[in-house]
Specification:
Shape: elongated
CATH superfamily of the largest domain: Ribonuclease H-like superfamily/Ribonuclease H
Helix content: 40-55%
Strand content: 15-25%
Number of domains: 4
Length: 468
């Protein structure tokens, strides 16, 4: 008695099978298909011509990209291959097999549309009541640019490279002239006046170098592969990267996102807040962010916008260590009623003058006392004739944030930041292995980052629907 089921390689079907049968009703591909079918792609469609061979519908290519980015597949070649063997891709592509160039060109040519698509997906989340905008967590991560570090040079380096390219071109031309007697063998049925492939490559390289030279400054270094990428410090060292910013709800829905060439985060929070409120048409009440976003300007602007800040300053986590130093500034108590500081020895420091730091855009009140000279602990407190304490005019805003963060409620709310947005970066980099962008140039990199973000949101919609 045969104990195995029969192998039916040549089994014929009474009716041809449908691709619908190979994709479960609860599959992620079906949610992507449903959402993309509801998106407006007319701005892309109107750019296609009715003349010539029919093109793949933009929604097909958009579905493939979103599904690929949702599952960690960002290579156009891999997506094209999967359209031949993976039933989810076959379902989304309507059994078509678009070439990898078609997928890649669609991705790089529609950077502006992905901004609209990102917002449209947020609106879908709102319709499903998945978005609560009151409290928003903000964070950033560095993702490597698609560059070769050896192609980074200053102006003198590019000028020397241009000389070398010209010499190489001349050698290629000379070598081509020396083998003219083998023309028939070299060119076959061609005319014989085409540029050799090696020469065409050198000419293109020369053109790129000349373009960079028109924009590079004297002491500046620019990468030839991606002129917009900047060197940034991350956990592995200094690399050409983009600083990717995002804001999420406490439910993990990304409501604002962009990639920037600025390594610092301080100037990114206000644009993130503005984008969040534009994308959702709702008002933020609480802003959660790490100390990289903290500055007096940020505290001031959030106060003006009636947004409660849960953003520790750069010295917040060092309070305990600093308090252990008897003469640290933190141990000088400010008396608001008398506008004086009380030193650890009980002496009063009175207002002396206003000091302005133009570089940091800060204005401070300086406090001092004439009693330092007779103090027995002077040598431990200051090396000068007297000790100065400066108080930035917006210091009360920072103190208010510190007090808020020290409350049990503040600590609990701030912990939620780590539980909402940081896992998104972990999923992107560790689970999906996304550590480098595929596209080059700030505009295209920003579009690719938005693809990652909207794909994350669609995955959240999928989990929401399957859990319902």
């Amino acid at each position: 008695m045969n104990k195995f089921k029969a192998i039916k390689d040549d089994q014929l079907y009474l009716l041809p099978p449908s691709i619908e049968d190979f994709v479960p009703a609860s599959h992620l591909a079906r949610v992507i298909d449903e959402i993309v079918e509801g998106l407006d792609t007319s701005s892309i469609e109107e750019r296609y011509s009715e003349i010539g061979q029919k093109s793949y519908h933009p929604k097909i290519l958009l579905k493939l990209l979103i599904y690929g980015y949702s599952t960690g597949v960002v290579s156009g070649r891999k997506m094209a291959t999967k359209c031949e063997s993976d039933t989810a891709y076959m379902f989304l592509a309507s059994m078509y097999r678009p070439d990898f160039r078609t997928i890649n060109d669609f991705r790089k040519d529609n950077a502006e549309y992905f901004k609209k698509c990102f917002v449209d997906v947020i609106k879908v989340c709102q319709q499903l009541q998945m978005v609560r905008v009151g409290t928003i967590a903000f964070d950033s991560t560095k993702i490597l640019a698609n560059v070769s570090a050896k192609n980074t040079k200053d102006k003198a380096g590019y000028e020397q490279w241009l000389i070398e390219i010209d010499q190489q071109i001349q050698r290629i031309i000379t070598r081509a002239e020396e083998v003219n007697h083998q023309e028939d063998k070299e060119h076959g049925n061609l005319r014989g006046d085409e540029l050799p492939k090696e020469l065409r490559q050198k000419e293109r390289l020369k053109s790129k170098i000349q373009q960079v030279l028109t924009r590079i400054k004297e002491a500046e270094k620019i990468n030839l592969t991606d002129n917009d990428a900047h060197i940034m410090k991350d956990k592995t060292g200094f690399n050409y990267s983009y600083n990717c910013q995002a804001g999420t709800t406490l439910d993990g829905i990304i409501v604002s996102a962009f990639a920037t060439t600025s390594a610092g985060d301080k100037v990114q929070l206000l644009p993130l807040i503005e984008q969040t409120e534009q994308n959702t048409n709702e008002k933020i009440t609480n802003a959660l962010a790490d100390s990289g976003y903290a500055s007096y300007q940020v505290y001031e602007r959030l106060e003006e916008k009636n947004i409660t800040a849960y953003i520790p300053d750069q010295q917040y986590n060092q309070q305990e260590k600093r308090n252990a130093d008897l003469f640290d500034r933190s141990n000088f108590t400010y008396d608001e009623q008398n506008d004086t500081y009380i030193c650890p020895q009980g002496k009063e420091l009175h207002f002396e003058r206003v000091y302005q730091n133009k570089k940091k855009h800060q204005k401070s009140r300086l406090y001092s006392t004439s009693e330092c000279l007779t103090c027995p602990l002077k040598s431990q407190c200051t090396k000068g004739n007297k000790r100065y304490i400066n108080r930035e005019l917006r210091e009360p805003l920072r103190e208010k944030v510190r007090q808020r963060l020290n409350t049990p409620e503040g600590k609990a709310l701030y912990r939620k930041r780590m539980q909402t947005i940081e896992p998104i970066w972990g999923n992107l980099k560790e689970n999906k292995k996304i550590r480098r962008f595929n596209l080059r140039g700030k505009e295209k990199v920003n579009a690719e980052f938005l693809l990652h973000c909207l794909s994350h949101n669609i995955t959240k919609i999928y989990k929401h629907k399957t859990a319902a």
